[in-house]
Automatic annotation (TrEMBL):
Record keywords, A-Z: Membrane, Transmembrane, Transmembrane helix
InterPro entries the record matches: DUF1232
Mode of membrane association: Multi-pass membrane protein
Residue span, DUF1232 domain: 31-67
Subcellular compartments: Endomembrane system
Name this polypeptide is given: Uncharacterized membrane protein YkvA (DUF1232 family)
Membrane-spanning intervals of the chain: 33-56, 62-80, 101-120
One Pfam family matching this protein: DUF1232
Amino acid sequence: MMRLKDWARAIKRDVHALWLAARDPRMPWYAKAFAFAIAAYALSPIDLIADFIPVLGYLDEVILLPLAILLAIRLVPAEIMAEHRATAAAALKKPFNRGGAIFIVAVWALAAVSITWWFIPTAAK
């Protein structure tokens, strides 16, 4: 189980590193474009294949996305990837800002209550 967690942390670090590399001016344009596309897809809630489709639904997360991440890493020059991996690893070690998360959840809850209040007709008096 620890190997799977370590692998997931490495993938998370590498996706963040690819995102950073995609914005690095030292990168070749084709590697920059591919790294940006893969990082954006990995961080996006939208899937290529919908998850509710049996077996195929998780194909992109389990097989296609890790392979695309590996290809993107190979396109990034080694010294640039090492630099951005170190930055991404340091970012993962920073403490999570619970106050910011609570604020975001509160804003969404307030929006949900407001929308509900707006659309539910009030009882006739």
